């Protein structure tokens, strides 16, 4: 029996590479074909995994290699098993023959699905198809209508990819080595997309006429970045101003507070709205704090009360609102309401609870 050697670098989206085999319209992990798997070596960036794969299991199949550069640039190649039978370097048989590999565009994968098993991941993938595509389209239409740009900074690179091309963003997460890693990668872009959509709904509820433009820019911008004191944007509805903050913190080292406590300290609420014109979260009177939840209740219920306590202590909001993509269990919802928290669940595109959310925004801020 003839075998080939394949190496994967489990470095995530900074230098990682991952192999998949096409089976009909399914993309299946290379390890499903391997007869052995071991950690070849380890570095500060992650581990390299070595697979021994029988040639007969791959004969006649397309092999896809998904790669990230150290800077996070994404590339995609395809080949057949012959590229490994005639490796580029005899001393490194896991490097396929360059002449037998082909660089392709991500659009060539259209119609193919990554094999997945985790029920939570499968649920989230359905939500991406049913809800997140609609959210992104609504945000883009509102941006065009109101004449502002959205600038993704800091750690928002993957969210930017999702926003510009949700298909490519999904691929960047789904190529990782297992369902746990995929779920972790999806968490932030989905959370920020939902927060953007909720922010847009709040603006619509307030009847925002325009967004203030910085002098050096040609048009208004929503600044989407984490842990800043400055606002994401300042909006106007008639004679009234509203300042919106996106995952702010009262100073840029505030997230280190938890190093000096026995538990994690939550310092970055998802959305803050202050009536008036403010240049910094440090000077703003917080009229509304919105916490957005994009995962089912069981994924966050244990933390939510301490999270709210931290936000109250740090930001002293007049009103706190929790908005959830999924249904919030009755007992938890009742507990939140007893604490004075407005809890609105199942807020999704086209749902009746969108109007409920808008009414609460108007009652709180108008």
Could you please describe the fold and organization of this structure?
It is a single chain. This protein is 32% helix and 26% strand. The protein has helices at 55-58, 82-85, 119-146, 157-164, 166-174, 179-206, 304-315, 330-338, 352-365, and strands at 3-10, 17-23, 26-29, 36-43, 46-54, 63-68, 74-79, 102-103, 113-114, 149-152, 210-211, 221-224, 233-237, 240-246, 271-275, 288-293, 319-324, 342-344. Helix 3 (119-146) packs parallel to helix 6 and helix 4 packs across helix 6 (179-206).
Layout of strands and helices, then pairs:
Elements (H helix, E strand, L loop, with lengths): L2 E8 L6 E7 L2 E4 L6 E8 L2 E9 H4 L4 E6 L5 E6 L2 H4 L16 E2 L9 E2 L4 H28 L2 E4 L4 H8 L1 H9 L4 H28 L3 E2 L9 E4 L8 E5 L2 E7 L24 E5 L12 E6 L10 H12 L3 E6 L5 H9 L3 E3 L7 H14 L1
Parallel strand pairs: 3-9, 10-12, 16-17, 17-18
Antiparallel strand pairs: 1-5, 2-3, 2-6, 4-5, 6-7, 7-8, 11-13, 13-14, 14-15, 15-16
Helix pairs in contact: 3-6, 4-5, 4-6, 6-9
